[in-house]
Write the structure tokens for this entry.
Amino acid sequence: MQIITEPCQMQAIAEKLRLNRQLIGVVMTMGALHEGHLSLVKLARQSSGTVILTIFVNPSQFGVNEDLHQYPRPFEQDVALAKAAGVDYLFAPEAKNIYPENYQTTLECGALGKRLEGERRPGHFNGVATIVTKLFHITKPHRAFFGEKDAQQLAIIRQIVQDLDLDITVVAAPVVREESGLAISSRNIYLSSQERSAATILYQGICHAEKSITSNKRDLVAIAAEIEQMIASTPGCRTDYVLFVDEERFEQAERAEEGKEYRLLLAAYCGAVRLIDNGKIRAC
Ligand code: PAF
């Protein structure tokens, strides 16, 4: 595995790979690699000739009161994990080479980037859209692999690819969970052991929704309210939002229609830690 830090060097390598007809798969991360990231690398490995993993803690997607400076950066450990997972190139640039002095351009997301997470974290998705697009240009992938854990981010990336006519296939990988059902996330390290077990209420909420919808309940607003109640009665936890969106347009859905797919989106605090989770459910 080769470690590259200069954008122009990564771009030159990617260009050469393309000229040699190599199928490039990219997995973008902010490091602190875990099972979720490794499942993306595995998927990329299965269907790409060359796998590029990017590690960059992107300052432009953090709000002023967010955890940019505390964000975990176990670089040596990440290098070992990437190598063992079969990554060919690890692209880990410095911030000054991604956003040099006099950097001026930011991608502006539309309505999709301003709702839900976008409303709570103003500017977050513009930062994500900008870095993902820059990394697309630097790594020149044919396929890009993203986790469904960040479902709104995934929807926004699909929108960028469509709106900007990028010749890239976005491949989504399912949420990876601990045995308890807790979705794996780099931010889980902020949870105390008590909060970690309380946080499984999010997964229990997803299971409740699945059971309700498969037993023919149609009122998605009522089901979401039941899940909010479950979260509210878990010590130390409080809901930020719980709602269903339709899988196609990512807009709030109120009633389940037969044969359609919905995504339950949850955001909740367990102690001071804000967690997000989601589950895809088909109404039969
Ligand atoms: O999901 C993440 O880790 C980040 O938002 C991403 C896509 C790597 C952009 O910084």
Notes: The mean pLDDT is 97. Residues 63 and 121 are 7 Å apart (CA to CA). Residues 186-282 form a domain with the Pantoate--beta-alanine Ligase; Chain: A,domain 2 fold (CATH 3.30.1300.10). The longest strand covers residues 237-246.
